[in-house]
Design goal:
- It is a single chain.
- With 266 residues, the protein is α/β, with parallel strands linked by helices.
- It has a single domain (17-258), classed as Rossmann fold, CATH 3.40.50.
- 43% of the residues lie in helices and 14% in strands.
- The protein has helices at residues 26-37, 50-59, 75-89, 114-141, 159-162, 168-188, 209-213, 215-223, 233-242, and strands spanning 17-20, 41-46, 65-69, 94-97, 150-155, 193-200, 255-258.
- The chain has a 7-stranded parallel beta sheet, sandwiched between helices.
- Helix 4 (114-141) links the parallel strand 4 (94-97) and strand 5.
- Helix 3 (75-89) packs parallel to helix 4.
Amino acid sequence: MENVTKPGVALSMAGRTALITGGSRGIGAATVQMFCQSGAQVFFNYRNSEAQATRLIADCGGSDCQAIRQELATPSDGAVLVRAAVEAFGRLDCLVVNHGIWPPHDIPIESMSEAQWRCTLSVNLDSTFGLVRAAVSQMKRQESSGSTRGHIVLVASTAAQRGEAFHADYAASKGALVSLTKSLSSELAAEGIYCNCVAPGWVDTEMSSAALTHPETSKKVLAAIPLGRPARVEEIAGPILFLCTPLAGFISGEVFNVNGGAVLAG
């Protein structure tokens, strides 16, 4: 019998544009690379890591990957970034809200300063509101192919679902993203704009390196993960990409847990 090679299933993003926040390192950088490899034009922001952003653009081939230094701490910051992405590529098909801060030191709620609370929510939530508001407005204005007008993926955390002692500010901000996902899906799905959430557990990144390299903390963390290890950044970027492809065409308002089995919640 003659062997016939059948084409594989491709997660293609050819002809589409994506804005990925916090794209210079960690999960963001892996997501930028994966979207570029899938054929998308990608715009991302960074706050401090200019050298890393420059290397990433070069690795992704240059012209179809662009970046800007842009703080994200207010709704207006988010709107500015969306405008920059549209100016660069003419349209916006996917918004991936990946940026965020996690104050690394344990702070009991009675000792947490108003400044820390306000800073965490400003970066993790207020700027997200500005990004989503501007992105939805753009998606509704532009011509769409078929019934899909756009995709929004918010990156939350297991802390959004089970809380995190001594990090109430972070857990509250990420929990709000879960509720925002469900609200946006209810509002926008019928108009062809899909909104989903990816909720990672512990991931091997610069942000988590202090905890994962600390002997006692690392032992406690890994004991709570059935797979016995933190995620690699590509293992978070993959689900984000999937949710922006036609293969996820019947998924909206979903919390996609990527945590090695640590938190079994929807």
